[in-house]
């Protein structure tokens, strides 16, 4: 399990534990309070010794009652904080990418840019044999990134969005890997792949925006 998984489980377990003790002290608070109110209604004995003992006992119950109220509030507050932390942890998991997925998106970003450059080199006849080898290597890596499955902790909508993008990467990688210099120099094939790359980059921008990936920082590292 990831750190966020452990934090969710730990916080949830702590919330239940604190809630249990909070409810326990709540019960004791009501029982002691009932006892305390009954004692307040009673008249102290006239006997000096018994009166003193009675007052001391009533004060002791009052202190116990107040202490139970304090612990009840403390445990219920801790239960609220822990459950809030657990809910936020789950929300974060459902709406944020894992480190591996962020890395895959970042690397595929650079791969797409490089594939585009190599396609232009082939079209212009700039060392096409070297460029086709580069494309085969780049497309294999794109296909491998596209074969990834989104982590299950993401919400279903987020999983579908990420899966669609990964499928586009995989399809481009598989199709491009089977091409030759001659086929890529054909205008229709060349423009078709440029259009595919443009569509994937649009999908990529949407994914980056949705998951708050800093695309500007990636551009600066190019």
From TrEMBL:
Keyword terms of this UniProt record: Membrane, Transmembrane, Transmembrane helix
Membrane-spanning intervals of the chain: 6-33, 70-88
Protein name: Uncharacterized protein
């Amino acid at each position: 399990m990831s750190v966020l998984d452990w934090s969710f489980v730990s916080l949830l377990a702590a919330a239940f534990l604190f809630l249990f003790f909070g409810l326990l002290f709540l019960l004791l608070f009501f029982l002691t309070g009932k006892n305390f109110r009954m004692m307040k209604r009673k008249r102290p004995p006239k006997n000096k010794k018994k009166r003193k003992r009675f007052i001391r006992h009533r004060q002791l119950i009052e202190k116990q009652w107040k202490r139970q109220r304090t612990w009840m509030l403390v445990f219920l507050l801790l239960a609220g904080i822990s459950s809030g932390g657990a809910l936020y942890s789950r929300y974060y998991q459902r709406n944020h990418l894992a480190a591996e997925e962020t890395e895959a998106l970042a690397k595929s970003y650079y791969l797409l840019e490089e594939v585009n450059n190599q396609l232009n080199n082939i079209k212009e006849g700039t060392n096409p044999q070297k460029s086709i080898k580069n494309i085969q290597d780049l497309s294999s890596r794109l296909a491998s990134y596209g074969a990834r499955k989104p982590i299950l902790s993401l919400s279903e909508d987020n999983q579908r969005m990420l899966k669609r993008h990964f499928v586009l990467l995989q399809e481009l990688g598989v199709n491009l890997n089977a091409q030759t210099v001659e086929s890529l120099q054909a205008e229709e094939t060349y423009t078709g792949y440029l259009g595919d790359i443009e569509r994937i980059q649009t999908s990529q921008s949407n994914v980056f925006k949705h998951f708050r990936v800093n695309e500007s920082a990636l551009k600066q590292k190019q």
